[in-house]
Amino acid sequence: MTVNYKKLWILLIEKHITKAQFRKSANLSSATLTKLNKNEYVSMEILTRICKVLDCDIGDIVEVEK
Question: Which of 38, 49, 54, 61 could in theory staple to 8 by disulfide, Cβ–Cβ 3.0 to 4.6 A?
Fold first, then answer.
């Protein structure tokens, strides 16, 4: 199984948030942002932090694909 963060990038566009603003507000490292860009796994802690910043649910930012 793989993960896909396409929904996250769409949500950022809809909310007019740049990746730099997103990284700063969610307190993400550049390595974590790179992992998200490459659809790699990140911790549940990071996903919940992103959800708090964007006021959304995990299903709104990530999909699990077979």
Answer: 61
pLDDT in tens, 2-37: 999 999 999 999 999 999 999 999 999 999 999 999
Report which residue type is found at 35. K
Cβ density class 31-47: b for 16+ within 10 Å, e for less: ebbebbeeeeebeeebb
What dihedral angle (degrees, nearest 10) is formed by the CA atoms of 39, 51, 27, 13?
Answer: 70
Largest CA distance in the chain: 32
